[in-house]
């Protein structure tokens, strides 16, 4: 059970990620996987890494999977493989984690911020079109789009491609929160030209540290990535044919991910069941998140949009519910990023969502009793302050 209850739903002790419950279910498998690595001693790019890359590629149907040290590195390695640099523009959503934007200036390029849809939280193609025009007027070369699959649902890649293709842009899917989802029968990992994902402990498929992976069907890009992640290595470690990074996935993390991957398909179904249960239990009083037609979500977060977000957050803290706010300051308003341009049509939705979203705990091991207590707390709390309504006037 994921909680202990007192005071009619208050005094909960809700686990935010379900990692402890997952560990119990896996039993000794993780310990045995780590022990095998300790026995063979190939701690960096050992055999488990190769096995994991093949299994991940098979899972989503990509031709290549190249693992690396983090989801952030996965994005940077892709920009490096695409030759993005000074004078280039890369289009990123303003409502996302900072990693999506930070890798752009790190390669010498300019991030241009794009607005998101208020319904899906993902990149708005019309805003992207305006941002591309701005880049051209600024004398920048439009090169790449990084479309984030926020909270577990893939972005609308067909619509994004329709805007990007006439300009020759490479579309990179930032799937840090969406690996395991799909859109129109195609799995995440095959929706963009290339895909980056993360195995950070809070992600749907996670390791016990940092880790990431890149998916691509491009043989040349895959070869570049394998070189770039090991200091630009050529035929040997002392043959450095290009400037690269130190971004290798360690073998222990690969072994952990292999053990967890066996559970992953069922965990996706369990996440989807918990999301449906939230929507059924709260849909009469709140606007609940929707999955777009033809898409699926892995529900990395179950995110509500509320006029009274801050009051609900305080009530959840009081009740012992780890509700979270992602992301309270949009990227274009962060001090390190204010100097970079933004789409001329504005970032209204990104700014609104930053002030009004709140995510309830969701994971495959969230039991019904605990989830009921969470929903009771949300209902009771909002009724107490007399604010059950969503402000529907945002853009």
From TrEMBL:
Active site: 203 (proton acceptor)
Modified residues (N6-(pyridoxal phosphate)lysine): 203
GO process terms (BP): polysaccharide biosynthetic process
Entry-linked InterPro entries: DegT/StrS_aminotransferase, PyrdxlP-dep_Trfase, PyrdxlP-dep_Trfase_major, PyrdxlP-dep_Trfase_small
GO molecular function: pyridoxal phosphate binding; transaminase activity
One protein family per Pfam: DegT_DnrJ_EryC1
This protein's UniProt keywords: Pyridoxal phosphate
SUPFAM superfamilies the UniProt entry points to: PLP-dependent transferases
Gene3D superfamilies tied to this protein: Aspartate Aminotransferase, domain 1, Type I PLP-dependent aspartate aminotransferase-like (Major domain)
Superkingdom: Bacteria
Family, similarity comment: Belongs to the DegT/DnrJ/EryC1 family.
UniProt-recorded name of the protein: dTDP-4-amino-4,6-dideoxygalactose transaminase
Organism encoding this protein: Dichotomicrobium thermohalophilum
Organismal lineage: Bacteria, Pseudomonadati, Pseudomonadota, Alphaproteobacteria, Hyphomicrobiales
